[in-house]
Amino acid sequence: MNKKFHFLDDGGEMGRLMREKDWSLTPLGEPNGWPQSLRITLNIMLNSPFPMFLFWGNTLKSFYNDAYRPILGDDGKHPKILGLNGKEAWSESWSDVEPMLKIVTEKGESIWKENLMVPIFRNGQMEDVYWTFSYSPVKDEAGCVSGVLVIVTDTTEAVLAERRLKESERRFREVANLSPVWIWITDNEINIQYSNRALLEYVGVENESDFTGQVWIDVVHPDDLDIVFKGFGKAVEDESGFTLEYRVKRKETGNYEWFKVLGAPKFEEGKMVGFIGTAMNIDKQKSFSDHLKKEVDIRTRELADSNDKLEAMNKELQSFAYISSHDLQEPLRKIQMFSEVLMENEFDKLSTSGKVKFEKIQSAANRMQSLINDLLSYSRTDTEKRVFEIVDLKDVITDVKNDLGDELNHKHGKITLLKSCKIEVVPFQFRQLMYNLLSNSIKYAKSDVSPEIIIDTAIVKNAKSIDSSLKNKKEYVQITITDNGIGFDEQFAEKIFEVFQRLHSRQEYVGTGIGLAIVKKIVQNHFGVISATGKLNEGSVFVIVMPKAQ
Ligand code: ADP
């Protein structure tokens, strides 16, 4: 049956259902005879995209539009409640609905409710649904209330979402209040919008609303205010987070304690609206590190003092060594001179054992001479003025080779320089250094193997990895001297550089035990390092690392 009623034109599914329904069997009769007020109201409803429901007449017959349709869900009242009495249509919630309808029908008043829970049977079950709605009277031609128009939205989702939000905020507050770390949110004038309990208690403010920007200014240490203003200002400028350390007054004691504050400006739609942040009490760490720093300062000063004293003592000692060896030369020279005279004129007159003893006196005097010479040059390495010049290693080696000519020839030795280099040094000291090392290599050669000495150089880039006293930025030259001599036990690798340290007896090899001490001193004078490695009966390697330029 498809009847044509203009007021039921359009209206989507509900319009069609109303047109198709056989109203003749209901007390309302055919739509043709429906009162004008009902027709107009239905026409408005069917054309509205807003959910609407109409209770009409004494029995409150039910009408609703397409927009209302989803509210009824599936497996529920739709479509059977169309034209049904209100009490039957809404039996599950009639006790809630009827009193409201009565207010409208009996008093002619409108009702508006927000987020009211009224249960409804839909989707095959009873559901608790929240509604925001208005009930308004629809009057007939005589001015009597003959219907109630319900305009409604299902706000369940919004109500539940808000409830979830409140719950999550409650939980956040609970957790935040348990935290000893401050958690805070401010507006852009640093007035607190949210603060956890730890911060409120520390500062001694009861309510967040009393925690204005001025309170911050009152509790931050006056000396640190500048840091705070600049830090916050820069964070806004850079639109980035910040970490600041400053002191804040504890209400309870009136003392300032150190805090590490991490924060960030808050932006909404590109506008700065405040700050959000946390703060941790670092007073204990801070005072500990302050204490540590003071201790380190004191120790450093003490160390510097002892260094100064040591240096002064060293100087004294050196000048003593210099003076004494210098003064010793005089009587020694006399011994040598007179023994030479004796040798020339009276030697023959001595008995055989007298001759032996006399020779021993002479050799002891000669040894003393070389000891004094070595001691003198050892003390001189420090006291003499250092004038640096660029020298070519090959020239120095040629020079030293000439000096060592006799020993070298005598032992059929060979000195090979693989790669020369230029280096800025104090020439006579550097010459002595090379001389001492090369003469040792010849002296400590194996008795049955001719000495072969190889000298090589290389440029060192990251010198710090060799020795922490060297600087990575500087360019260093590494000079390696390798010999095939008697070598030495690795455990003495450092000891041999000490004054008077000898691994071999005077009977085996002549020497004073000062040569390598001089070498080390010269290397140090050039801000370099020296090390030695050796293997008994296999040879030794001496490695010098010195700045290419001073
Ligand atoms: P010395 O006057 O005894 O040569 P040095 O200070 O020059 O004094 O050397 C100290 C000691 O180191 C030497 O006595 C020797 O035992 C050892 N030594 C030095 N150079 C070499 C080398 N090239 N091969 C083996 N041993 C060496």
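^ adenosine-5'-diphosphate complex. The two ends are 113 Å apart (CA to CA). The CA atoms of residues 284 and 478 lie 49 Å apart.
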